[in-house]
Amino acid sequence: MSADPLLAAREKVALACRILGARRLVESILGHVSVRVDDASVLIRCRGPRERGVARTTAADIRHVDLDGNPLEAMDGWEVPKELPIHTRLLAKRPEMGAVVHAHPTAALIAGLAGPELRAVFGAYNLPAMRLALDGVPVYDRPILITRNELADEMLAVMGDRRVCILRGHGITVAGESVEQATVTAVDLDELCSITLRLAELGASPPAIGADDLAELPDLGSSFNDVLRWQALAADADAALDASPD
Predict the structure, then answer these.
(1) Strand 139-140 and strand 164-167: pairing?
(2) pLDDT tens digits for 175-187?
(3) How many domains does the chain have?
(4) How far apart, in whole angstroms, are the C-alpha atoms of residue 99 and residue 91?
């Protein structure tokens, strides 16, 4: 038996962090990913004495804590993020979700501040991003650190049953049934925000996709939308890390 039964989950969370770094959804040490271990604990990206940034996260940066942030293993100098409640309150209130991403993508920041409507104006280019627009992307209006349970609950009331929420002047919260789904969804939200901003810069306002065309755009399922795309994003992240100076 492995000395660390949670090692595979740690490695997956670490890879999610590297993907976010490669896609520039996080910078430096800001941003974190978590995964549910059970109803009372999570694995989460912590900050440590040998910090190299989120884009270079390894399994050693991922620590097991309870929902109050109390360590369930030796921390060795690592500290939980101050915004742990984003993760713990979401996972406590939404048992169907298994992972949480909190990141600071520039496009989402600008979209949240500038206020353009995130509309479903493209289709087959990126179906999951289109569906985020169809469902609507809520915006939490307070540009604060979400360091207390009551603040996290306030954000979650705005987020509702959606998988994404823009935090105005701050970043994004994304939930998924798996680490793969949460990570890919964060990338899709960034793409939706980036395209919306580019259209606004061009002064373009294309029509929303019509019902007939929507009927021709199927849900390709989790094995395509989450697993295969995760694998491609992971390969890109590893290649970017190999090419970067140490």
Answers:
(1) parallel
(2) 999 999 999 999 9
(3) 1
(4) 7
User: Which H helix or E strand runs over 35?
Assistant: strand 32-38
Q: What is the mean pLDDT of residues 134-143?
A: 97
CATH of residue 107: 3.40.225.10
Q: Is residue 243 part of a domain?
A: no
Domain of 96, in residue numbers: 7-236
The encoded tokens of residue 92 equal: 């406590």
- What letter would DSSP give residue 75? -
Question: Confidence band (pLDDT; 50, 70, 90) for 2?
Answer: low
Instruction: Report yes or no on 242 lying in a domain.
Output: no
- What does the block give as tokens for 231? 């694998």
- The single-letter DSSP state of residue 188 is H
Instruction: Name the catalytic one among 51, 79, 83, 180.
Output: 83
**For residue 49, pLDDT beyond 90:** no
Q: Assess contact for 134 and 213: CB atoms under 8 A.
A: no
In a domain, 246, yes or no: no
Query: Is residue 241 situated within a structural domain?
Result: no
pTM of the model: 0.94
Q: Which residues, including other chains, have CB under 8 Å from residue 23's CB and lie 6 or more apart?
A: 187, 190, 233, 237
Mean pLDDT over the full length of the chain:
94
Residue 245: predicted pLDDT: 66
The answer to whether residue 216 is catalytic is no
From residue 85, alpha-carbon distances to 57, 148, 190 in Å are 21, 6, 23
Strand 139-140 and strand 41-45: the pairing is unpaired
Q: Tell me, what's the pLDDT at 221?
A: 74
Q: Which helix (H) or strand (E) holds 208?
A: none
Quote the tokens at residue 87. 């993760």
